[in-house]
Model the fold of this input.
Amino acid sequence: MGYPIGISGNKTDQTILVDKLIESLRSIISIPIIPWDERYTSIQAKSILHQQGKKPRDDKGMVDQLAARIMLQEYLDSRSRT
Done:
């Protein structure tokens, strides 16, 4: 799950909300929920879209989808290293 840590590395108000959501989900589902630092993924996604000639400001959903894919790939890559 995307984990919105502040740029400084500290928790934000949004992080605290996500902590509560994770806690709630863990009480009703049995699969692992792994908080994943989502800092800079939107910036990476916008850069990729820009390189593809797309205008990321026109479609936030496209940016969010690509940012989620970046986080998933980072997670999968981290698993293959261990």
About this structure: The helical segments are 13-26, 41-51, 60-81. The chain has three helices and two strands. The chain has two domains: 1-38, 40-82. The CA atoms of residues 59 and 65 lie 10 Å apart.
